[in-house]
Every structure is written in structure tokens, then in C-alpha cells.
Design goal:
binds flavin mononucleotide
């Protein structure tokens, strides 16, 4: 790794003019990966690996970075890979490439999640507006309490338009009763998860990997304390309620089936939502505590008009002070195989 590489700063400072116009096809595709790795991922686990061929990138799940306790079915892992894939496609279109994605191309090699073939001088997709590209460098998870300000209908429509994949739907929740119900499930989810010592140990480990932008010493202290912490349900009730009820809008991404392809596509839609929101001056914060617990996941779906869907991802949308320091990223060199 370059001695000057600062994981919180360098990855977010990509200079578009550094794209190697005169370089080989592989060098150009490798440049696109700088954008892919800025995608969000549960606990900032960055559970992806890439292999660059002449005109193709293979996208792999990195099972060493899988949260086995918190995400036993690898749903969040595949949503994160979908986010990275979407950034890759948006960057490819920006630099003039068309692309063909094949999901899960080899059923006997389950870590190979997708292959993307790149075609020079391709046509951009109608639903990936060019401005999304710039938003990649400005998108950050915002965990602050949100302002009361409502999101204008036209902006919510633009968020809704991000959802083009078949079987994937975005449900917007802005009525008080449903928000309270989601909040209640989230509180129960967090209480269930944190009661498990293995979950607490896993959390402590990932916290040490730079999940939140908190000083190193404080991170170390939290890491030491978390495994022994018996957190009372009331603590989550206060923290979650403040975040959920401050947000003007909650959203749930659902799928009609629960397979790998749809999980990756939920991630792709989520990343387009995040980038569109960033463009519109909106903040996004995933809240996966309820959907990470199987019984509660089904109950989240029951709150929605089509209750026979699978609720895969819950997040809040709203306005807040911008995030000051971005989350860290591993350099591209570390995610290449
Ligand atoms: C599938 C998924 C689930 C997530 N769940 C949560 C969550 O429950 N709570 C939370 O605060 N952040 C959650 N996040 C956000 C990540 O923690 C965040 O993306 C990561 O720390 C990197 O920070 P960044 O998004 O600001 O780049 C989730 C992200 C993804 C993609």
C-alpha cells in the first residue's frame, strides 16, 4: 500500500482525469473499481473481491469478511455486493462503456456473484442518470437525528424511479402508525441480536475495523466492553426511537423471491436510491436490526400493502447536517484477486 494512503481520505479523492485513457483495457477497468469500493456495506465489512480480465470483471463475495452471526443467510453481504456492482456500472457508463451483467454465472462456484463484460462506446442506461456518478464520492451513511422537514413529493418520485428491477419494490412509509410499528420491530430486533454473546463478539471485532468514525482509543475501549455488555431493551428504545421517529420517511426494499440474484439487485436499487438521495441533498441510513431477525423480517413485510413479499432492506431518509469524515476503505489493490 502507498505510504501516503489514508483509508479515510484517499479513496474518496478520486480524480476523474486520472482515468488511464491511453492504458490497457485491464488498467481502465481497474480504475473503475475505485468507484465500486466506495459502496456501503453492513459494518463497513467491504465483503467483495474482483478479478479483472481483458474486457471483463468478475465480482466475488469475500467470505472472510462475512458476518456469520449477524448475517447467517448472507443477505446483507449480497446487498453490499449489489451496491458495489451498481457503482461499477455507473462509473463504466460515465467513462463510455456499455456492459452486460451475468448474475451467478457458475452455480457450483457460489462466491462468484456476477461477471460484467464491458463494451467500449456503449449506450448509457436510461435509469442511470449521469449525475449519479458524481454522487458516488459524496454519498455517506448519515446516522444523525434528521430534521422534521418533509421530503417533497417530486423527490420521493425520483427515489421511487430508482426501482426498475423486476420483482424489487420500494415501499415508502411516512404515516406515524406504520413508523411506530417499524420502530417497535427494530427495537425488538436489536434486543434479540445483542442478547447473543456471539453477536456481541462479532460486532466488537468489526467495530475495530473502522465502522464508525470514532477515535482509535475510544474504539478500542468499546471493543473491550461490548462482549460483556448486557444492554437493556430500554436503551435501544431510546436510541432507535430518536432516529426512526425523527425521519420524515422510512423505506423498505422488498423482493418477490429470496434468492441471490434478487438480493444483489436489492443492493443495486439501494445504491441508486442513495446516490439519487445524495444528489437531492437527502441523507440515508440503513436500519437492518429488524430484517436481520427472521421472525421480525416477516413482520416488517406484514406492515406493507403487499404482505407476501420478502422485506430485505430498511432505511430512513431525511435531512441532516452532512457527515464530516467519511468511513474508511481498503485500497483497490487489496480487493483484487
Ligand atoms: C446491507 C447493509 C446493511 C446496513 N445496516 C446498517 C445498520 O443496521 N445500521 C447502521 O448504522 N448502518 C448500516 N449500514 C451502513 C454501513 O454501516 C455503512 O455503509 C458502512 O459503515 C460504510 O459507511 P458509508 O456508508 O458511510 O460509506 C448498512 C449498510 C448496508 C449495505
Amino acid at each position: 500500500m502507498n505510504a501516503n494512503y489514508d483509508p479515510r481520505i484517499t479513496p474518496w479523492q478520486i480524480r476523474e482525469q486520472d482515468f488511464p485513457q491511453e492504458g490497457s483495457s485491464a488498467e481502465k477497468l481497474e480504475f473503475l473499481l475505485r468507484y465500486a469500493i466506495l459502496a456501503p456495506s453492513g459494518h463497513n465489512s467491504q465483503p467483495w473481491k474482483f478479478s479483472v480480465r481483458k474486457d471483463e470483471i468478475q465480482v466475488f463475495a469475500d467470505e472472510m469478511r462475512w458476518l456469520r452471526v449477524g448475517d447467517p443467510e448472507q443477505v446483507n453481504l449480497h446487498i453490499a455486493i449489489g451496491c458495489a456492482l451498481e457503482n461499477l456500472l455507473i462509473a463504466a457508463e460515465h467513462f463510455g462503456y456499455g456492459h452486460q451483467v451475468t448474475y451467478c454465472p457458475r452455480p457450483n462456484q457460489k462466491e462468484l456473484v456476477a461477471t460484467v463484460k464491458f463494451i467500449p462506446q456503449g449506450q448509457p442506461s436510461p435509469f442511470r442518470e449521469p449525475a449519479l456518478f458524481r454522487a458516488i464520492l459524496n454519498r455517506h451513511t448519515n446516522r444523525k437525528a434528521y430534521e422534521k422537514r418533509l421530503i417533497p413529493k417530486r423527490d420521493l418520485n425520483r427515489i421511487q424511479d430508482c426501482c426498475v428491477e423486476e420483482g424489487i419494490r420500494l415501499h415508502v412509509i411516512d404515516d406515524l402508525d406504520t413508523k411506530r410499528n417499524v420502530n417497535e420491530l427494530l427495537i425488538r430486533g436489536h434486543a434479540t441480536l445483542i442478547a447473543d454473546p456471539a453477536f456481541r463478539r462479532e460486532n466488537a471485532y468489526w467495530l475495530g475495523q473502522g465502522l464508525f468514525n470514532i477515535p482509535r482509543l475510544l474504539t478500542r475501549l468499546i471493543q473491550l466492553v461490548i462482549p460483556y455488555l448486557k444492554v437493556n431493551r430500554a436503551v435501544f428504545a431510546v436510541m432507535d426511537t430518536r432516529l426512526v421517529m425523527s425521519a420524515p420517511t422510512l423505506a423498505v426494499l422488498t423482493a418477490s423471491v429470496n434468492d441471490r440474484v434478487s438480493q444483489v439487485q436489492v443492493g443495486q436499487v439501494f445504491e441508486r436510491v442513495c446516490l439519487t438521495a445524495t444528489m437531492l441533498g437527502l441523507c440515508v441510513h440503513p436500519l437492518s436490526g429488524a430484517v436481520d431477525v427472521p421472525e421480525l423480517k416477516a413482520q416488517v413485510a406484514k406492515l406493507l400493502p403487499d404482505s407476501d413479499v420478502i422485506s430485505q432492506h430498511v432505511f430512513r431518509l431525511g435531512y441532516a447536517e452532512p457527515v464530516k469524515s467519511p468511513a474508511q476503505r481498503r485500497p483497490v489493490g487489496e480487493v483484487l484477486v
